[in-house]
Fold this protein.
Amino acid sequence: MITLLFIIIGAYLIGSIPIGYLLCLLVKGIDIKQYGSGNIGATNVYRIAGGKLASIVLLMDILKGFFPVLLTQHLSLPFYYSISAGIASIMGHNFSIFLKGKGGKGVSTGFGVITGLFPLSALFSFLVWIIIVIATRYVSLGAIIAALCLPFFIYFFQQDTLPLITGAIISFFIIFAHRNNIKRLLTKKENRILMPWEKRK
């Protein structure tokens, strides 16, 4: 039980590291929380600081979720340790202790967790996300729909209750973090994103 507690605390602290905030501060000299949507994730970094920095933020946020899960698997700990570590890292990203309980929206870190736990479900969720984003230019809509699909993909591939519950919990965290985006989508006030191959006007 002590080991599980240390795993959860460690995963939460790793997830809490505000990569987007730190890199924008160090590289660009800006507080990303004061620009765009105010979010510290890769999408807002992409809009404000460009694709190169956003790519680094994206990769490192994914690793924040993937690494704790991988570590528990490397140590041959029970599966529920991996699940606990994954959820704790998402909680850390969304409610960072270093940002007084604020944070990102859990998409990249959640993807890292799902990749570690359920690789095929992660792949199919990613495909849903990318199709929706390319079709609509709404990153948030892609994340919401991919999160909604996630439990179904997990159940299809795993056929087990615990993975299904895990997927539902992760899906809830991601959709809850997008509640303001949902309001903006419904009122048609959500910002679209330019794809890398599109020119800014």
Observations:
- DSSP finds ten helices and no strands in the chain.
- The mean pLDDT is 94.
- The chain has two domains: 1-106, 117-201.
- The first helix runs from residue 2 to 16.
